[in-house]
Amino acid sequence: MPELPEVEVVRLGIIDHVVGRTITRVTVHDVRSLRRHLPGPADFIHRLEGRTVVGAARRGKYLWLQLDDPDGGASDAVLCHLGMSGQFLVSDAGAPAQRHLRITLGLDDPAHGGGDTPRELRFVDQRIFGGMAFSEDGAELPPEIAHIARDPLDPLFDPAEFASRIRRRQTGVKRAILDQTLISGVGNIYADESLWRTPLHYARNTRHLRTKEIESLLGHIGDVMREALAQGGTSFDALYVNVNGNSGYFDRSLQAYGQQGRPCGRCGTLIRRDAFMNRSSFWCPTCQPRPRNGKF
DNA sequence: ATGAATACCTGAGAGC
DNA sequence: TGCTCTCAGGTATTCA
Fold first, then answer.
1. Closest C-alpha to A242, from A106, A103, A109, A87
2. What CATH number is given for A4-145 in this structure?
3. Which class is domain A159-283?
4. Which of A58, A61, A122, A197 is catalytic?
């Protein structure tokens, strides 16, 4: 389940394979992966073919390929979201199609004059929660995601503003940190891990959080993401990228997520699992006591 | 405006 | 064995 660290691993994994390359041919295998590109697949293909990728950027869980501006006009982008199951692969053009291949971007390398084996950037996505869209004038920040807050790894992320905004909310703290307009990049796994570390129960009311609790939570969100990124950042092959969004973090370091019935690493109490927001929350009943009256 | 619920998706696994 | 059901969850949309 790609959250911020996994998306950053993907960005780092593909960047050297796409920057400086021209998109020669676009194949849309499944139009559902273009759900957010309203003009449709023909328009998507037309706008991409012939453009050169000059960079790859990210905010939260969104990733975008920055395109050159041949007319000296607006600098466009290809906006991508991995959803639940999205992957990017760099493949030889002749390699057989993957099972859930949705979109293929054929790449040319002008610097090598076509002498190398042609490569493709392939978007594979089993559940089609992710997708791609052409973003006009979106190179710096796609307007489609301008409402998304900066993420905790962004140097311009403002902790004081976050503290101020979250305290004006009247909801559970986990709902708040999953809200991408307050802080981006946090998904269910890192939400539970951060809340366990702080520790805070997921239903604690944002309005009654103490300043120290917000500061601590924010610190742990940043820590858990940096640790996950450090573990995932070394796992991809430099030449044939198969970035599957699995940073390798899951197997070793999770203290709460998916740990129901196992002893808490801090106190030994068995970790519990609750249904929450059509998903699950994992928490330690001793370290993260359930609030009473929605307060503490 | 804010908060909460729902639709969108596929496949693995459980239960019968 | 084959069927039905449940579960995984990020985001846009809809409703209160």
1. A87
2. 3.20.190.10
3. mainly alpha
4. A61
